[in-house]
Amino acid sequence: MTKYQPVPLEFTRIDQGQQRRRAREFFEQCNCRRTVREYSDQAVPREIIDDIIRTAGSAPSGANKQPWKFVVVDDPEIKRKIRLAAEAEERESYDHRMPDSWLADLEELGTDWHKEFLEVAPYLIVVFKEKYRVELGIQKKNYYTDESVGIACGFLLAAIHNAGLASLTHTPSPMNFLREILQRPSNETPFLLIPVGYPAEKAVVPDIDRKPLEEILIRNIQSTP
């Protein structure tokens, strides 16, 4: 067992004026992020994608086991295989698996089983969670994998938007075809499929609102006597 060896925290304290400004600016930046389904095929420098992945990899995780892998796909043939497999699952879901209430909710967003963006976007980032890890041939446990990978995906989406790119969180169900196409080991489970690139010149998005602060923030909780 490795002995606990702490190091000094690197932390820069800023004044409250800067805190307020940075908090507001970051909110305004994130608040304009939208899920995009229409992409340009314009190339994106690979080093930008690498730095985005570095940001995702900086997320906290259970016992610092970092139970994630990010597979970046830019090969047209592989993207087409992923699109065809995803559309097959999505068509089955739209035609047979989803209840009417779900289909009604999706109709408001204008979605269907067609997923052209999986081929058009210059990159697909496929996030895998490691159910367990293997070290020197020995299977070892990871902790809070769903929570850890979910947090990393939040970092990933924020980093994509911060870099001036568009994205979409796609979860065809089931997703095991991704492990097969990308030849990932059995201890990895597909978690999220994210096309990344520039939006198409005339891209449109649904006219939606986000819940106001009053609906999502609970203030002034008092203890029970």
| Structural classification | alpha+beta
Helix count, DSSP H or I runs of 4 or more residues: 8
Topology order in helix (H) and strand (E) letters: HHEHHHEEEHEHEH
The geometry reads as: globular
CATH fold label: NADH Oxidase
CATH class membership? Alpha Beta
Query: Helical amount among residues, as a percent range?
Result: 40-55%
Q: How many angstroms separate the termini?
A: 45 Å
User: Rg, please?
Assistant: 20 Å
CATH superfamily: NADH Oxidase
Number of domains: 1
- Given as residue ranges, the uncertain stretches (5+ residues, pLDDT < 50) are none
The biggest beta sheet is recorded as: 4 strands, antiparallel
Strand content: 15-25%
Mean pLDDT: 95
| Strand numbers in spatial order across the main sheet | 1-2-6-5
Q: Please tell me the CATH architecture by its name.
A: 3-Layer(aba) Sandwich
Explain this structure:
The protein is α+β, with helices and mostly antiparallel strands. The protein is built from eight helices and six strands, in the order ααβαααβββαβαβα. It has helices at 16-31, 46-56, 76-97, 100-107, 117-120, 145-162, 176-182, 213-216, and strands spanning 68-73, 123-130, 132-135, 138-141, 166-167, 188-197. Strand 3 (132-135) and strand 4 form a beta hairpin. The radius of gyration is 20 Å and the shape is globular. The model has no long low-confidence stretch (mean pLDDT 95).
